[in-house]
Amino acid sequence: MIIFSGCYIDVMHDAKLDPDNPFSIGFINITIENVNGDPINHAEIIINNDTIFTDSSGTIEEYEIINDTVFITINKDGYRSFHSDTIISTGVYLNFSISLNRIPVIQNAFLNSSVEFIRGIVDTLDYSVNIGLFITEYDGNNDLDSCYMSIFGEMVLLDFKYDSNGSIFYEKLFDENYELFSIFDIQGEQVSLKIADKSGERDSIDNLFLIRFVEYIPIVTNPTDGMEFFTPDTIRWECGIPPYNTFTLLRIFDSEGNCFINEILDINTNSFIIDSLFRSGEYEMIINIIDNYGNYAGRNVFFTVP
After folding, report:
1. Radius of gyration of the chain (CA)
2. Which pLDDT tens digit goes with each residue over 104-122?
3. What is the pLDDT confidence band of residue 11, given thresholds at 50, 70 and 90?
4. Closest CA to 176 of 120, 129, 232
């Protein structure tokens, strides 16, 4: 008979907060906000191999984790991801207060030309090029660092126009006297638009082109400029038919800028019946010939209703 004595196997320390227990735990608290201090709910938080989501207050509280190296990744659609690694000790509470940066996104952009008839001692045509973009940046325009176009090796800053709850619009209008390059040279050239926020997030569009200048100016025969116009009556104009797809836009405004007529017409149409009475006052009528890319030519006429 063999007798065992004087030895035994140590019993494992089983208390969760016992530092001698290799499987003891620490705790993690995480609060997630945007740059404005608003909580971000339902943000995905990956802690090592576990995935959890923040509540309506943007937090998770007392998440238990075995003392070890901790890898944390935070994801939320429309935001820059957050990554961190740290070491947690037994009984330690790690508190993270994290601000996620929204990613600016170019939603839409345009590049088009206009040719407008200018009445004067010598009638002229006024040529211009307009470029603009609509950006979604819910951290606000103050978080945008730059917004510019790139062409011919030049970087041209666009002008901020408005910020409506994170929907931001930038624009730049070039006339024939622009100094850095001729607007006529833009036609057919690739134009790039680029934005960046203060955290370095970027977006760009690299395939903008100015297709053409529309040089088909309508000639209004009724009413002529400055005449008295009695409604109901028929508006008439003449215009050549461009060899590319276009349509006619007819608009009439009163002296306060209210639009009474706003009609899209077939390019072959050269008249429009007004079958209602206009109140007395001054009016402006604008007729534009517009192609499928937003390039247009136009003429305006001022008339009065007695």
Report:
1. 33
2. 999 999 999 999 999 878 8
3. very low
4. 129
Q: Which residue has the tokens 């960046």?
A: 196
Give the count of beta carbons closer than 10 Å to the beta carbon of residue 173. Answer: 13
Q: For residue 27, what are its two tokens?
A: 């705790």
Question: Tokens 């890898």 — which residue?
Answer: 71
Q: Which pTM was predicted? A: 0.78
